[in-house]
Write a structure and sequence with these properties.
mainly alpha; ELMO_domain-containing; about 60% helix; ELMO domain-containing protein
């Protein structure tokens, strides 16, 4: 378990944070994400307004990566490949922002979901975290996560996918608008952390069942 945790921390250190120039180095991942999202469309240069189609807020996607660095992009690429149908369903519903304001910026949601997992599980000390104190409930969630990761190397990738699916499900169920983004993100975080705290799951599938995502 100690080795599993150590290796995962090295992975986070490699992909989180860094300068703007560090993020630029990960343009290959951004290009791959675009190609997975819009297979029939050529990858735009940066800056370019077309990046907003993927749910970036500006014309240069690198500026939206913020503290999560390239990690959120890698996780979105994973979801696009592992859950292609669900990924494209959520993408279609989410962006670009429509006139009815019922949609949300997809890629930025991915960055936020990545943050809420890293911060919620206290997997890495982040300067933007409200507190570095780890309480008992977080320790239980952490323990469950590392148990899953020990047996299933893709556990973090999978939990990211589950969390994004829940975000999309909650958004649609509420008929949310862009103003509800923070509330939906907080509710999503609560749902996932509650399940991780409730029981030491022995497999990702059992966690997925508990989150009612087995049909996705």
């Amino acid at each position: 378990m100690t080795e599993t945790k150590k290796n995962f921390q090295l992975f986070l250190d490699e992909h989180i944070g860094g300068s703007l120039e560090d993020h630029v180095k990960h343009m290959d991942e951004l290009r791959r994400l675009w190609s997975l999202s819009f297979p029939s469309m050529p990858v735009p240069p940066r800056p370019d307004d077309r990046w907003k189609m993927l749910g970036f807020q500006g014309t240069d996607p690198v500026t939206d990566l913020r503290a999560m660095g390239a990690l959120s992009v890698k996780l979105l690429c994973y979801m696009a490949q592992a859950y292609n149908r669900t990924y494209h369903e959520i993408l279609k519903e989410s962006c670009p922002l429509g006139e009815d304001n019922k949609s949300f910026p997809f890629a930025c949601a991915g960055v936020n979901i990545c943050f809420l997992l890293v911060d919620g599980l206290k997997l890495k000390t982040l300067s933007s975290s409200p507190s570095h104190k780890i309480d008992y409930s977080v320790k239980r969630c952490q323990s469950t996560f590392y148990e899953l990761l020990h047996g299933e190397p893709n556990a973090f990738n999978e939990i990211f996918c589950y969390t994004f699916m829940i975000f999309g499900r909650e958004w649609k169920a509420r008929g949310a608008t862009y103003m509800d983004f923070a509330d939906i993100a907080n509710r999503t975080r609560h749902i996932v952390m509650k399940e991780l705290e409730r029981k030491s799951w022995k497999s990702l599938f059992s966690l997925k069942e508990a989150l009612k995502l087995t049909m996705m």
